Amino acid sequence: AFLHPPPGVTQRELWFMRKLSPSKDMSLKHHKGNPQKLLEMNGHTAVPHSYDYDLIVIGGGSGGLAAAKEAAKYEKKVMVLDFVTPTPLGNSWGLGGTCVNVGCIPKKLMHQAALLGQALQDSRKFGWQFPEEVKHNWMTMTESVQNYIGSLNWGYRVALREKKVTYENAYGEFVQPHTVKATNKRGVEKLYTAERFLIATGERPRYLGIPGDKEYCISSDDLFSLPYCPGKTLVVGASYVALECAGFLAGLGLDVTVMVRSILLRGFDQDMANKIGEYMEEHGIKFIREFVPIKVEQIEEGTPGRLKVTAKSTKGNEVIGGEYNTVLLAIGRDACTRKIGLDKVGVKINEKTGKIPVNDMEQTNVPYIYAIGDILQDRLELTPVAIQAGRLLVQRLYGGATTKCDYVNVPTTVFTPLEYGACGYSEENAIQKFGEENIEVYHSHFWPLEWTVPSRDNNKCYAKIICNIRDNERVIGFHVLGPNAGEVTQGFAAAIKCGLTKEQLDSTIGIHPVCAEVFTTLSVTKRSG
Amino acid sequence: MGKTYSLLLLFALFDLSDHTCENVQEQPEYDLLVIGGGSGGLACAKEAAQFGRKVAVLDYVEPSPPGTKWGLGGTCVNVGCIPKKLMHQAALLGSALKDAQILSLSALFLFHSCSSSLNVRLCCFLPNRKVKYFNVKGSFSDPHTIRGLTKGGKETILTAEKIVIATGGRPKYPIHVAGALEYGITSDDLFWLKESPGKTLVVGASYISLECAGFLTGIGLDTTVMMRSIPLRGFDQQMASLVTEYMESYGTKFLKKCIPTKVEKLESNRLQVTWKNTDSGTEETDSFDTVMWAVGRAPDTKALNLETVGVKTNSETGKIIVDAREATSVPHIYAVGDITEGRPELTPTAIAAGKLLAQRLFGQSSELMDYDNVPTTVFTPLEYGCVGLSEEKAVQCYGSDNIEVYHAYYKPLEFTVAERDATQCYMKMVCLREREQRILGLHFIGPNAGEVIQGFALGIKCGATYPQLMKTIGIHPTCAEEITKLHITKRSGLDATVTGC
Fold first, then answer.
1. pTM of the predicted model as reported, rounded to 2 decimal places
2. Of A142, A294, B41, B73, which sits with the fewest C-beta atoms within 10 Å of its C-beta?
3. A520 contacts B348? CB cut-off 8 A
């Protein structure tokens, strides 16, 4: 039944089609519009009813898909164009965007694999006995992770089809007002018109622009499907992507070094960022600070091969060299906005960052073109934010709603070995905004009960809240380092949304014995020392 | 009202102390005497000491019938929350070993090495320096005097201005069941066992019963729960049945609608239990290595001699009747924790109540303990956390037409690759149906339920509404984010299974 799979279906998806619905007709319906003819008929004078679609979404990631599905609820004619340009090493993936394929999902699963490694060590103290040598198999892990991702890719396709959203695995770019050109893998081009457009193309990892980077280095776009264990790894960068990847690679037993140009986790609370760094160092991850790579050379081919990295100090002229099996670049991400014909329709981007400025309705300077997700200027790069923004946008466009996406007090978590959850202001930003004398910082170390028996890391987990003294000690920042930080933070984020004050925090009864209860008994201020 | 009262109380204090100085020969030795060194009592004592008061704590652990005893700190630390969560963690690690595909090889659980590492930890619990501690069994001899008896029978007389009773509760034995006391153990003994309990029967359907049965199953023991009627009485019953359903799929056996009638010791040293199946009316029997009773807890008031001083108790439950200020029927005698009538039996409430009481007695405070919306969690194999009203209770209070229940079945990401069953991972939010849709209750079953619920409990305390929760952006990928995405109402009858991101 699958001798002729629809174009753009990856091997992985194909496997799922076979596995999940062997009897169904799997040919995906393609829209066979004739936009040329329509254009001729209308002579470029855009009359709404003459467009092929009500909405074309460029980019099938979390935000784009959420918006497309939402629009379909209002019985709008919707198309999604998604195309993954292969990485320099040739990797590409299915529908769903970064989060599902090369972001949140695989990284959390690999983080979980590393946590299980820790659990194995703990479990001996808890009375479990098993043979000494426990090995981790990289291939088993990546296969399981990739199979799960495959099921998600397939699920998205099914969901789009069920909702009657047209999906094309083709690269979309604007060619003229209200018109995009879609180019598929084989180079076949089609034109589609729509009344409105939503740009949700996201970002891709940045390369260093030094000799050997694209030839020999990998990025997070390659790591999660790497067909071999990366071995001794150099992670370049100090973003959360860098620290998360370094964290789980070390947790799986690999020799990991992180090369950092300046500070860790820029934009996050620096007190917390440094604690994360300290914890990682104590757990065997090496840090080379204030160095940047200038050259990567291959010493030996292989899976993994051997690479020589030459790096230069950011402070002086000192040059160092090191040998690694794998070099993972995680120095930042660039918005995919420069090659989608925005100039043809006049959508402005920030020339420096490539990001798109939008108003509080996610509208670009071209009224019929909207944008959401990681490509937005001055907005958060988070999956749930993109989803929320996309849904609300569509509800405003087609559902008569007026609710705008609220980008304030968005919680987030970083899956470093010691997890970090945060919501609201960092301490630095709070001081800058309100003045040091007007904020009160309450903090406390805590020791998770489940770490006591294996006598693991006392005084590493940390809780901090920042209150605005002038506003009834309202909680404006929440920070936690510890196990399940994301699970802990979510509810507090909801409470902060409801205007939580320190007094209310104090009058809430804790749940015993959990880590989150520490927040109900915070009494020491930073000021007091 | 509260403020006026505390002012009056202050005047009363001054008045009284002048009076005692001049006219009474024996001035009370202590400002505050706390009977019972558990979480609530110690919190109250420490807080009072912070105000510079002279405080003493009396603590005495009557050995359990099989002879288990422990040190200061009370139930939570010694035979409650702390050891049970650690044992639960041991069981969770078992699941982790399974996920890591090691358990199938040749892992085995050494009960002794686990319990001994627990006990080392538990023994280091020390009282606050500023508080005087007596390891004596206290009883009232007059309203201001406590007679303390040491283990050796030595008597100590202590007098105090104010007295707080915080003696907690102890597990009940089913006295009508022959052999129950002789051969059975309770949660007071379980955590201090030197050897694995082996094949175990846990009798009861309380959270203690289910938690213990859960971790015993998790560490690889053949475990059976016998229950008379419903599981987790007082908790939301839909959630309760999901909890037990999961336990059944996890390997815990259940004998439902069964009542034990006798326990006998066989020659093999095993215990033969006979019970009546009230459904079929038949008598059934099986043998076990250990029988644990988890049929409820009784307040520990017998030794206190409360009648002498006139402290009133509820004749049915035996618990001490207190008002909103934790005062008993005798104005200078107070009670906090599990011993008090109608209060949640939870460590953090006892601690908060004890602290607030000390602040009212010795500080300038008039703040009363708020017993509403207290969150809690049950550490069953699949954890259950909740805050606020159960669905039944909400229906009872507001009528089913006036409440809206949002719910979802979800799959934790870490269950997917490990191919763990997530059939019972479920959450629901009970809201008022009127415009604001204020949240009345939140219920969550899944990993780390306690960690998830804590923050939301705070939101509910702040009067969170459904729309406010929907405005909260999720943290991806976590289980807790599903709460911010709840949108299917029970009323709609739509499929509540969460799919994809």
1. 0.89
2. A294
3. yes
